[in-house]
Amino acid sequence: MSQEELIQNLRDEVKRLTSEVSELDETVQKYKSKYHKKRPPKDILDEYHRLSAMKKDLSEKEHDLSKIDKMLKSGKKARPLYNICVMCGSEKRLDTKQVRKKCREKMRDDILEVAYCDEESGKIKTELFKKDRPLEAEDLLQKLKADVVFDMHNVLDILPHNETLFDSKYNQRLVCCSYVGAESYGLRTRTLADIKRRIESGQIHWGALVFRREHGNGEYHKRGSKAWLCKQTGAKHFIDDGIDHVESVESLNTGIKVYWVQKPYEVNVDKQMSIMRNNFETKLNA
């Protein structure tokens, strides 16, 4: 069905609902006059509720139609009338977001999503943990372990996904940990896909998304933060472009070495990795 047909169908639906609501409203008003001093029978109450639901449906469709008419008058192309929620697959009203409001609200409870290679199947497995499963999340992080934790954006994504980061002689367990907003479905999906691609190439051992951050707080250690992940995995090195992440990890006081990548990112990623490599060499020769 074309966009024009969908718009015409919406106009017809608004017209039909307007007529039905008007008729039902007259009927309900008669009922209200008749039963104004006592509770109406159940079938009459059902009519009240049906009218309320129809009025709400009509209001939403009129709102959608008003938006579309404004777009058409301005010369802009009307967006699709209904999108499919990528989380639950249900239709949702005219909206620019990929995820329904109810699904976005559920995503706010996420604290950690991990991608790693399953030893039994040899395939990449992902596990999502919400705030009601913190101990299970911590058990997995402690099992997976990490030596070096890389940020993704402006750090690891500067480098090709199949580039070898360090010589195998250093024997470092390399991990990617990226903070993304819990409700940012598109960014979450793209970042997790990039992590999986780097696991497949052998660049990193495993990766994770964390969803908790407090901008400007250099001592943020709550579950779902990068500092929390570093502590649980026993990380020894942490490289990131976010100063609040760097300060929070450093404030753990676990002896972890931190590396702050500043602009220009391409230059400073190489610089900080060279410093890290020198630290590996020093320890190897000690």
CATH architecture of the largest domain: 3-Layer(aba) Sandwich
Largest sheet: 7 strands, mixed
Tell me the fraction of residues in β-strands, as a range.
5-15%
Q: Could you report the average pLDDT, rounded to the nearest whole number?
A: 86
In the CATH hierarchy, what is the class of the largest domain? Alpha Beta
Strand order of the largest sheet: 4-3-7-6-5-8-9
- Per DSSP, the total helix count is 8
User: What shape does the CA trace take?
Assistant: elongated
Question: Would you identify the regions where 5 or more consecutive residues have pLDDT less than 50?
Answer: none
Our measurement of the CA-to-CA distance between the termini, rounded to an integer number of angstroms, reads 71 Å
Topology order in helix (H) and strand (E) letters: HHEEHEEHEEHEHEHEH
Count every beta strand, where a strand is a DSSP E run of 2 or more residues. 9
Percent helix: 40-55%
Q: Compute the gyration radius: what is it?
A: 27 Å
Overall number of domains: 2
CATH topology of the largest domain: Rossmann fold
Query: Which secondary-structure class do the elements indicate?
Result: alpha/beta
Which descriptors apply to this entry?
286 residues, alpha/beta, Rossmann fold, 2 domains, seven-stranded mixed sheet, 14% strand
Walk me through the structure.
- With 286 residues, this protein is α/β, with parallel strands linked by helices.
- The chain folds into two domains: 3-81; 104-285, Rossmann fold, CATH 3.40.50.
- It has helices at 3-34, 42-74, 101-107, 134-144, 185-201, 226-233, 243-250, 265-285; strands at residues 83-84, 91-92, 110-117, 124-130, 148-150, 174-179, 206-210, 237-240, 257-260.
- It has a seven-stranded mixed β-sheet, with helices on both faces. A two-stranded antiparallel sheet has the order 1-2.
- β8, α7 (243-250) and β9 (257-260) form a beta-alpha-beta unit.
- The model has no long low-confidence stretch (mean pLDDT 86).
